[in-house]
Specification:
The complex is a heterodimer of chains A (about 250) and B (about 375).
Chain A: E1 5-16, E2 19-30, E3 34-38, H1 45-52, E4 60-65, E5 68-69, H2 74-83, E6 84-87, H3 99-109, H4 115-128, H5 144-156, E7 162-166, H6 174-189, E8 193-197, H7 201-207, E9 210-215, E10 218-223, H8 225-230, H9 235-244
Parallel strand pairs in A: 3-8, 3-9, 6-7, 7-8
Antiparallel strand pairs in A: 1-2, 1-4, 4-5, 9-10
Chain B: H1 26-35, H2 39-65, H3 72-78, H4 85-96, H5 105-122, H6 128-137, H7 139-147, H8 162-188, H9 193-207, H10 211-225, H11 234-259, H12 263-271, H13 276-291, H14 293-306, H15 318-325, H16 335-363
The chains are: A alpha/beta (about 250), B mainly alpha (about 375).
Chain lengths: ~250, ~375
């Protein structure tokens, strides 16, 4: 085991029917590391990140999160999910609950936190993502950027040790991308372990410790942002970068 | 980009509002647009007006102008309009059947309790949670008051009837079939193959046969299958039949609602550490049920009307009592009054439920 490893993925393989989406993935994420995964659509990056909290099941290989292996055992899976926050492309806030209720739901039901304490904590996190004033509105009344920040706050309320971001800015208007990225950057500066699937290369350049490039279900290249952007080792990476950075 | 030079910029001033042309607005405009906007529509409008002119005045004259409220003899003498004295005379049996006269206060308590809960519901006096508790706690006191026991004299259920019986069957039917329907719908979407197969089997079996068949099964066949010495009275058997029937339909309605919830909701819920069951209960079901409230209200109306089929298995509900009362040798020849009154009562109740459904539909946008 690598020192300080919080996520260890070994020889991971996954199929959808006959389609081989993930091929022999090996990836280790250490405590406090910020990983950005990029790649063309259909390359398996979302599937990979969704395997880490078992929204997708893998068929071969192993994933160990904080010393617990992800298996069929539902208890293990739930335990891991409690400590691994996830932010989705489509926000996935609960539309029938207010923003505040969205945030307090999991702490009160999963951590059995008293309601008053949960509300106080939720308001603190809403303050950190700068939407305290929206606490009593419903998700449908917020802009996309505000919704995504609320979704980040919702994940943070479970006090996770790892945060997974699955294309958090892809569904946003250009004007709103920055406000979400700012929140994510602040989170990174606080030392949160983060795995982000994103096309925001500026974010990758400034925040990531390592950039991983995937194509056709494989990890093509794994490098520091410096090396990745200035001196990619594969033609496929170069092509991708030339298309995305104009 | 803001242009650097703003010296010769024009200023936009909106035009003043004008009133629309007279013939396009107001009641005249409406009539033109909706009733006479073309040859075919004009012909249809005129035909409909003629038909109404032919039918409405005689109906009004029968029901109101030439109607009497007198007793039978006076009514027979005149015999031109409706004789509403019949409905007055039969009112008690129509409402409660042949429930013993000395215990009439007990059905009165039933109607009172039901009316109270309905009023609380209509005027939204309490929140949704309390409202659900109120409705679901209704059957128990009602059963005790009507049936007897614990200090009250027993009244055999074969004596229950009339509108009281119809309402009992419908209300209890809906209340019990809602949770069963939800469970069946969840079971149908279960990942466990056996659970899924059983739920699909039950739903499709029940939806594949008419309610009458289920009532016959419950009333006639079920006793044959029960072990010796065990009896369930006819009313309870019929009630179980009604609940099973309604559950299967509500399950399909709820399934539609469940399918409308995007998978991301479940993913977001479980990714915060909620178990699948918690996520279903806290996130999926509340949204799914809100989507299908109109259809569930529709099922309530349908079920209330369907209870009139219990006449087939010998229970005299409201319609049954209407029919029976027209057979009274003292009051022969009053079918018209009986059925008009029956239709009016059914319509009032069903229309009210529909309107209530519309109103919560409007209030439920989030």
């Amino acid at each position: 085991m690598t020192e300080n490893a919080v996520i260890e993925i070994k020889e991971l393989n996954k199929w959808y029917g006959h389609f081989h989406v993930l091929k022999n993935i090996n990836l280790t994420v250490r405590q406090g590391e910020r990983i950005v995964i990029c790649g063309p659509s259909g390359s398996g990056k979302s599937t990979l990140i969704r395997c880490i909290n078992r929204l997708e099941e893998h068929q071969k290989g192993s994933i160990v999160v904080e010393g617990t292996e992800l298996t069929q055992d539902l208890k293990n899976v739930t335990d891991i999910r409690k400590n691994v926050g996830m932010v989705f492309q489509g926000f996935n806030l609960f539309p029938h609950l207010t923003i505040l209720e969205n945030l307090t739901l999991a702490p009160t039901w999963v951590r059995e936190m008293p309601e008053k304490k949960a509300k106080k904590m939720a308001m603190e996190y809403l303050g950190r993502v700068r939407i305290e004033s929206q606490a009593h509105k419903y998700p449908g009344q917020l802009s996309g950027g505000q919704q995504q920040r609320a979704a980040i706050a919702r994940a943070l309320c479970m006090n996770p040790r790892i945060m997974l971001f699955d294309e958090p800015t892809s569904a946003l208007d250009p004007e709103m991308i920055k406000e979400v990225l700012d929140v994510m950057t602040e989170l990174a500066e606080e030392g949160m372990t983060m795995v982000c699937v994103t096309h925001e290369m500026g974010f990758a350049r400034t925040v990531a410790d390592r950039v991983i490039f995937m194509d056709a279900g494989e990890i093509v290249e794994e490098a520091s942002p410096e090396a990745f952007f200035t001196n990619p080792g594969f033609d496929r990476t170069q092509l991708f970068l030339s298309q995305i950075l104009k | 980009m803001i242009p650097a030079e703003t010296a010769d910029i024009k200023i936009f001033t909106p035009q003043a509002d004008e009133a629309p042309p007279l013939d396009a607005s107001g009641p005249i405009g409406w009539i033109r647009q909706n009733l006479f906007n073309g040859r075919l529509n004009t012909v249809l409008t005129v035909a409909a007006l003629l038909l109404l002119a032919k039918t409405v005045p005689p109906l009004l004259s029968w029901a109101f102008f030439k109607a009497t409220w007198a007793s039978n003899a006076a009514c027979d003498a005149a015999r031109e309009g409706a004789c509403w004295g019949f409905v007055v005379e039969k009112f008690r049996v129509l409402m409660v059947g042949i429930y013993p006269e000395q215990y009439l206060w007990r059905p009165a308590v039933f109607f009172g309790l039901l009316a109270a809960v309905v009023i609380v519901t209509l005027f939204r006096l309490v929140n949704a949670r309390t409202l659900a508790i109120l409705w679901f706690s209704l059957p128990l006191p009602v059963f005790w008051v009507l049936n007897g026991g614990m200090g009250l004299a027993y009244v055999d259920q074969s004596l229950w009837g009339g509108l009281m019986l119809s309402l009992c069957l419908a209300v209890v039917g809906i209340l019990f079939s809602l949770p069963f329907g939800v469970l069946l719908a969840l079971g149908r979407r279960s990942e466990m193959a056996t659970v899924k197969a059983i739920c699909v089997g039950i739903i499709e079996l029940i939806r594949g046969v008419p309610l009458i068949t289920i009532l016959f099964m419950a009333s006639v066949m079920l006793p044959l299958f029960l072990p010796e010495g065990m009896t369930i009275n006819n009313l309870l058997r019929v009630q179980i039949g009604v609940i099973m029937f309604s559950s299967a339909y509500i399950a399909e309605v709820v399934r539609g609602g469940l399918q409308a919830i995007p998978p991301g909701q479940m993913e977001a819920a479980v990714s915060t550490g909620l178990t699948k069951w918690q996520a279903t209960r806290l996130i999926i079901l509340p949204q799914a049920l809100k989507h299908v409230i109109p259809s569930i209200i529709g099922r309530c109306v349908a079920l209330f009307k369907d209870t009139s089929l219990v006449i087939i298995v010998g229970l005299l509900d409201f319609l049954g009592m209407i029919k029976a009362s027209t057979q009274d040798p003292e009051w022969l020849g009053h079918e018209a009054e009986a059925y008009v009154f029956c239709a009016l009562v059914y319509w009032l109740i069903c229309f009210s439920i529909s309107r209530y459904g519309r109103s919560i539909e409007k209030n439920n946008a989030w």
